[in-house]
Amino acid sequence: MARNSPAPRSAKSRAGIRPLPGRARSENGNAHSDLMNGEIGLDALAGHAGYAVRRFQIWVFQDFIRTLGAVDIRPTQYSVMTVIGANPGLSQMAVAKRLGIERARLVHLLDSLEQRDLVSRVKSAADRRSHALHLTARGRTALAQFKRLAAEHERHVAEKLGKENRKKLLQILSDFT
Amino acid sequence: MARNSPAPRSAKSRAGIRPLPGRARSENGNAHSDLMNGEIGLDALAGHAGYAVRRFQIWVFQDFIRTLGAVDIRPTQYSVMTVIGANPGLSQMAVAKRLGIERARLVHLLDSLEQRDLVSRVKSAADRRSHALHLTARGRTALAQFKRLAAEHERHVAEKLGKENRKKLLQILSDFT
DNA sequence: AACAATTGTTGTCGTCAACAACAATCTTCC
DNA sequence: GGAAGATTGTTGTTGACGACAACAATTGTT
Question: Where does the record place the region Disordered (chains A, B) (predicted)?
């Protein structure tokens, strides 16, 4: 989603907020039509849950990335660490299934987290094909901080949606978690 | 790495090593524990709107892509055509802003749609930098069909969420459309 | 006329989902 | 007990996508 490689200059001042109201006044067509007032209709799009959700998700992720920018943790990395932290010893397959990400993708995610000494792959004695995933000591203390920042992010969401709306949203989508 | 190392072959007499029977904790092994029943806790993740939304969005998009698979139209393409259909003559900049996509990205999207004779770029006489976007005749009839299929997709969403929940969801996220 | 801003375009980079293939290692079944 | 099939982690590829940067053409602004 966003540039967040640690090396290049941080996308700090970026203020990656997207232009919601989009005062897209002057459409180039000539004098005709009802668009002149700057209102660009969405037509059928307005009734599509998928569209609204896409826009919302972009906003949420950008806020998450920005709020956890200081610790350089992205949403997926956070989800992986959270699940491992709550269920130490899980295999990569189990984590991938639970989070709905491809095991192929998880490989790179874990490579990164392991390099940062946040997660460790322990060869399982029971099934030598698989790895038992654990947080390192450093990973545990780090996760605690991540959770505090993530809670702050979640407060931003609550501000944006309203407390009750956020709650209702979580309830409506609870089947997908 | 582990892939090509030919050495680690035999040696490992699987005789003595066994998975510590006393352990009732979450272990990678398949033999036991709380994972067997599929119960993998999400911990803090369960309270994050972003996580729920991400999972939901994946589901919705997959259903959309599948439902409109016969006509080979993806969500973003549909959104572009819908907006152009409802506001003929818009510039690329205006469409990009309204839909929250990069104008650089829109170039490719329009290239594709133009190649399929669904959209046409008309050089604007008013501002010769910009293009006025229109649906072709073919594009208009095609969009009508796309909308029917999209409506079917939306019914799938309603089935999944419940009619009322879908409505509430659209209302909660209305600021983002 | 000179200079700043906008529009479409091209290109690069990184994220991400979906596959396919593979070696190592279980599991199953005869 | 061993062959056949399934699973796990891994590597690689493809394509959609968001964020940026640079550029030519064209306004607009002064």
Answer: 1-32
